Every structure is written in structure tokens, then in C-alpha cells.
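Anyone up for a design puzzle?
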């Protein structure tokens, strides 16, 4: 079993608080996360393709 460190504890607490904010309703929680993704899509890795992405070869 892995020992919990402070970072993991803080992440879990934040996720619990978000879930509580939406009365632990999974549909509302997912809608909230989707809203955050749309609001901050430029910050997400993999959504902004660079000019060189189309030139990369897959082997």
C-alpha cells in the first residue's frame, strides 16, 4: 500500500469539495469539469497542435 503524501491528500480533499458542491451528483460534477475544460482549453496539453505536428512521422 502506498503512503499518502500531502499533495495527494490535498488533491483528494479538493475533489471531495467539488463533489460536495454539486451534492455528489455525478452528472453535475462532470458538467462542471467539461465547463472548466472549455473555459481553460488553451491550458490543456494536447489540444493546441503545433505547426510541426502534421510533419511528424509515425513509425
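Challenge accepted. My sequence:
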Amino acid at each position: 500500500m502506498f503512503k499518502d503524501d500531502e499533495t495527494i491528500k490535498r488533491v483528494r480533499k479538493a475533489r471531495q469539495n467539488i463533489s460536495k458542491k454539486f451534492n455528489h451528483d455525478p452528472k453535475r460534477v462532470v458538467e462542471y469539469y467539461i465547463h472548466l475544460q472549455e473555459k481553460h482549453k488553451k491550458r490543456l496539453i494536447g489540444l493546441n497542435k503545433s505547426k510541426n505536428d502534421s510533419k511528424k512521422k509515425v513509425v
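A detail worth pointing out: Residues 19 and 29 are 6 Å apart (CA to CA).
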